Amino acid sequence: MDSGHGTPAHSDGEDKKSLRKRLLAYRTHMPDRMERVAMLQQVLRVWLLARPDTSVGAYWPIRGEFDPLPALHRWKEDGELLEYPQRRKIGLPVVDSAHKTLRFHDWYPGCPMQEDAFGIPKPKDTDQIIPTLLFVPCVGYAAGGYRLGYGGGFYDRTLATLSPRPYTVGVGFASGFLPDFYPEPHDQPLDAILNEHGVVWPV
Questions:
Q1: Quick check: 194 and 173 in contact, CB under 8 A?
Q2: In this predicted model, what pLDDT tens digit does every residue of 11-58 receive, in sequence order?
Q3: Is 155 left (phi over 0), alpha (psi -120 to 50) or beta?
Q4: Rg over CA atoms, the chain
Q5: pLDDT above 70 (res 166)
Q6: According to the 3-state scheme, what is the secondary structure of the chain?
Q7: How many Cα neighbours within 13 Å face the side chain of 157?
Q8: 105 to each of 100, 146, 171, how far by Cα in Å?
Q9: pLDDT tens per residue across span 81-119
Q10: Which tens digit of pLDDT belongs to each residue from 116-163?
Q11: What span, in angstroms and rounded, lies between the C-alpha atoms of 5 and 3?
C-alpha cells in the first residue's frame, strides 16, 4: 500500500493527537493535490458502478478532506439514465446533539443549507434518509479497515447504533496510510477503504 509522497505515515510511538496534527498539515498542503483529487474522483466513480445502492451517506468536506460530492452527484444523475431509471439519494450528516451521533438528510446541489454547531454546512429542512452505503472521511487509515478520525467519535457511535448497518467506505489520500496503527476497542472497522490509487481495503 502506497503511503504517498513527502511524508512518512508512521504511527509507532506517536500519540493520536500529534499523528492527527501531522497528517492534517500535510493533507492541507499536498503539492500535487489537484492531481490526486482528480484520481480519487475517478476511483470513486468507477467503484460505484458495481454497487446496487440507491441511498448513499456522504460528508461535507472540511480541513483538506477529499470532496466526494461531484462524483456522487454524477452517480445520482447517471441513475436517471439507466434502462430502468433509479431515483438515487445523497445524504449529508446532521448531528444529533443529545446522543452525539449522526443522522443523514437529503442533499442536492442548491438545496437549502445552514451551519451546524461546528460551523459545517448541513441540509436545512430536507427529509432524513437511511443510507445503505456510507462514505466516511479519513485523516488516516490502516489495514483491517481502521480509520483515524478527528477524535470526536461521531462515526463510531453512529455505526454502533445503525441497524441495519450500512456498507461503510473510508475515503482518503495515500499519504494517510498508517502501517503501524493499532485500533482501540471502540474503533469500528470499515468495510472498504479507497484512495487515489484504488481500493486499499480489503486487499
A1: no
A2: 445 788 999 999 999 999 999 999 999 999 999 999 999 999 999 999
A3: alpha
A4: 16
A5: yes
A6: CCCCCCCCCCCCCCCHHHHHHHHHHHHHCCCCHHHHHHHHHHHHHHHHCCCCCCEEECCCCCCCCCCCHHHHHHHHHHHCCCCCCCCCEEEEEEEECCCCEEEEEEECCCCCEEECCCCCEEECCCCEECCCEEEEECCEEECCCEEECCCCCHHHHHHHHCCCCCEEEEECCHHHECCCCCCCCCCCCCCEEEECCEEEECC
A7: 13
A8: 16, 25, 20
A9: 989 999 999 999 999 888 889 999 999 999 999 999 889
A10: 988 999 999 999 999 999 999 999 999 999 999 998 889 888 988 888
A11: 7
Greatest Cα-to-Cα distance within the chain, rounded to the nearest angstrom: 54
